[in-house]
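Weekly puzzle thread! Below is a chain. First person to post its structure in token form gets bragging rights.
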Amino acid sequence: MSSPRLLPNTFARIAASDRFAAAVFVVILVNAVVLGLETYSKLEARYGQLLAVVNDACLGLFVIELAIRIAAYGRRPLDFFRSGWNVFDFVVIAAGFTPGLGRDTTILRLVRLARVIRVVTVLPDLRILVVAVGRSIPAIASLGVLVLLLIYVYGVVGWLLFHQQIPQRWDDIGTSMLNLFVMLSLENLPDNLREGMAVHSWSWIYFVSYALMASFLMLNILIGVVINSLEEARAIEHRREREARMAARAEGDETAEAGLALADAEDQAAMIGDRLSALRDALEDLEDQLRSSDGRGRLVSRDRTSG
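Winning reply:
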């Protein structure tokens, strides 16, 4: 039996291993399959007891997983709850033991569905994507206001142009805005363009400008917002990992120290790669400036010679 000092390190090594994460991922997938099979009435009537046993087994494995992750913090198990992802895992698993929960089938299945969502906490890359989506919400909300304003302006203009001849699409501002909202996907753009051209031959300007503004331009802005949020989320995740390693170093955790040098080396390699990329871009810009200045110098020399 291990000593009390080595026991937390053992749990930490297990919780940080790839095999442990893969095993948890498999259990989550099994739980998701069981939840999906329960939606088939014939399978539920025939294999209901078996599915319930498998679901209870998955819940038991989740409890063991949670206990190992809490024990990995050693003498400070409450530090486990300093992470929002850990709190989410704890609440989802603890909800399965709520008294009287089995009486409400809908709530029970929602709780089981929440266990499937836990796959986000198992896969680091997926967790980064979720954080990126959360950080992009304010910018996306502002972009949504801009799109709404654009649709309103084009809706009023479209009503003025087509409400008499094409009332099914432009009868009022609400109908016009709904039509333009669907047109964001460019799905009904050919039909609108054909009908508009039958009314005014120059109405293609209206539809083409709307497609360029509302679809292409706004879509590129949205992509830029998401990419920027993704970079911020990746930086947050890396900073969190560095803080965890520094805390482990401060506590003298031998298990954490074993992988600390490698992790620091990876961080330094990433920083060097970023600096080399920035230096390469700077050199390319300098070469472009030298070429342009050399071209202008030759042009001036020719002018002087000809003069």
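Puzzle host: Confirmed. Bonus trivia for everyone else. Residues 84 and 90 are 10 Å apart (CA to CA).
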